[in-house]
């Protein structure tokens, strides 16, 4: 269905509304990942997609390749539709009047307040993005930050931005997989990176977090989630986003996250914030910005097919969040007997 739109086989005034209709009728829409598939041809296609997706394992080499396919597109491209902070994750519209940039900083502020950041803290950030959160933490809380990325393009731009802010003494950007990090950290933060870990590595991820977190440390992350009841079917299926936008990705459920944490550590959940509707608004703003810059997108060498694919991607996600078919959560964990949290 998504491929048909990208190839120009159908048109609509609102992709988002089309997606909302499919979400409402998901059990009767066999082309939607996780729904009941009864037609033989579609079963065959689903199997082929699953085989292809299974080859995109998030081991050390696979993760680097999967991340590069999306995040190394072009820094200038992402700058066309993101806010000035270059934040590519859900904003938090704490106030209805907030613009996108204000809402992105509100997101950072909420996570930082949950971490109880102090100047003496050494923070590990798993997933640098283009450096916005690391810069925010160092500037506003005076803490030391070690931030990890496996994207060459993000590594370069994050370092450039940190140098311009004169924060190189506070922030270290490492081109390194989370599995290879060593040392101890007072706080760990990760914003919409867990979706790229993959089900086979959930426990690996959380064991690493527990191993490098100090006794009274705090772990906070923002993550896109699927409903617990749909996790297994999503894990065994391949949707349009996995096939065309984020290879190797899988949305965890809150239950799967807690199971992985319980199996690997003594960390316990102390805060959970539902922000799904905030992501719908974030995506709508990105889509509006993207379509206002089509001439600039084309100047970067992207064709009409790419533009249709990205419009479908942004609207697909907006519709799913608006209908609460998927969600985004801020989740905070610490160990028992930590009275600092």
What is the element layout, followed by pairings?
Elements: H1 2-6, H2 15-24, H3 40-54, H4 60-71, H5 75-81, H6 100-115, E1 122-126, H7 132-141, E2 144-149, H8 152-164, E3 171-175, E4 185-191, H9 202-212, E5 213-225, H10 231-235, H11 240-244, H12 254-264, E6 268-274, H13 276-292, H14 294-299, H15 304-322, E7 327-334
Parallel strand pairs: 1-2, 1-4, 2-3, 4-5
Antiparallel strand pairs: 5-7, 6-7
What does this structure look like?
There is one protein chain. The protein is an alpha/beta fold and 341 residues long. It has one domain: Vaccinia Virus protein VP39 (Rossmann fold), CATH 3.40.50. It contains 15 helices and seven strands. The chain has helices spanning 2-6, 15-24, 40-54, 60-71, 75-81, 100-115, 132-141, 152-164, 202-212, 231-235, 240-244, 254-264, 276-292, 294-299, 304-322; strands spanning 122-126, 144-149, 171-175, 185-191, 213-225, 268-274, 327-334. A seven-stranded mixed beta sheet has the order 3-2-1-4-5-7-6, with helices on both faces. Strand 1 (122-126), helix 7 (132-141) and strand 2 form a beta-alpha-beta unit. Helix 2 (15-24) packs across helix 15. The termini are far apart.
Describe what is shown at a glance:
The chain has 15 helices and 7 strands. It is of the alpha/beta class.
Keywords:
single chain, alpha/beta, Rossmann fold, seven-stranded mixed β-sheet, 15 helices
Number of helices: 15
- Provide the gyration radius in Å: 20 Å
Mean pLDDT: 87
Strand runs, count: 7
Portion of residues within helices: 40-55%
Examine the secondary-structure arrangement and name the CATH architecture: 3-Layer(aba) Sandwich
Q: Could you give a short account of the major beta sheet?
A: 7 strands, mixed
* Structural class computed from helices and strand pairing: alpha/beta
Beta percentage is: 5-15%
Main β-sheet, spatial strand arrangement: 3-2-1-4-5-7-6
Principal-axis shape equals globular
What's the CATH topology label?
Answer: Rossmann fold
Low-confidence stretches: 29-53
CATH superfamily label: Vaccinia Virus protein VP39
- SSE series: HHHHHHEHEHEEHEHHHEHHHE
CATH class: Alpha Beta
Please indicate the count of domains: 1
């Amino acid at each position: 269905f998504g491929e048909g739109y990208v190839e120009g086989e159908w048109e609509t005034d609102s992709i988002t509304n089309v997606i909302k209709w499919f979400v409402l009728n998901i059990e009767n829409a066999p082309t939607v990942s996780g729904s009941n598939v009864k037609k033989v041809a579609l079963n065959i296609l689903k199997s082929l997609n699953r085989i292809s997706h299974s080859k995109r394992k998030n081991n050390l080499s696979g993760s680097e390749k999967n991340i590069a396919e999306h995040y190394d597109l072009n820094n200038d491209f992402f700058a066309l539709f993101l806010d000035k902070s270059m934040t590519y994750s859900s904003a938090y519209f704490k106030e209805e009047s907030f613009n996108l940039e204000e809402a992105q900083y509100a997101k950072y502020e909420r996570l930082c307040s949950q971490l109880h950041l102090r100047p003496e803290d050494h923070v590990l950030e798993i997933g640098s993005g283009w450096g916005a959160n690391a810069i925010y933490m160092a500037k506003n809380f005076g803490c030391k930050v070690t931030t990890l990325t496996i994207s060459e393009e993000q590594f370069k731009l994050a370092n450039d931005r940190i140098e311009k802010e004169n924060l190189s003494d506070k922030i270290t950007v490492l081109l390194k997989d989370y599995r290879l990090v060593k040392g101890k950290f007072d706080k760990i933060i990760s914003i919409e990176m867990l979706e790229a870990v993959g089900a086979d590595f959930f426990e690996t991820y959380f064991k690493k977090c527990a191993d490098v977190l100090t006794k009274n440390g705090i772990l906070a992350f923002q993550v896109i989630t699927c409903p617990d009841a749909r996790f297994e079917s999503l894990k065994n299926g391949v949707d349009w986003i996995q096939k065309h936008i984020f290879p190797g990705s899988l949305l965890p459920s809150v239950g799967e996250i807690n199971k992985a944490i319980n199996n690997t550590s003594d960390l316990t959940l102390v805060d959970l914030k539902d922000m799904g509707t905030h992501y719908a608004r974030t995506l709508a703003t990105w889509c509006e910005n993207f379509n206002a810059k089509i001439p600039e997108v084309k100047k970067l060498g992207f064709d009409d097919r790419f533009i249709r694919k990205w419009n479908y991607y942004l609207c697909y996600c907006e519709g799913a969040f608006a209908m609460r078919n998927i969600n985004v959560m801020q989740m905070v964990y610490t160990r028992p007997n930590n009275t600092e949290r």
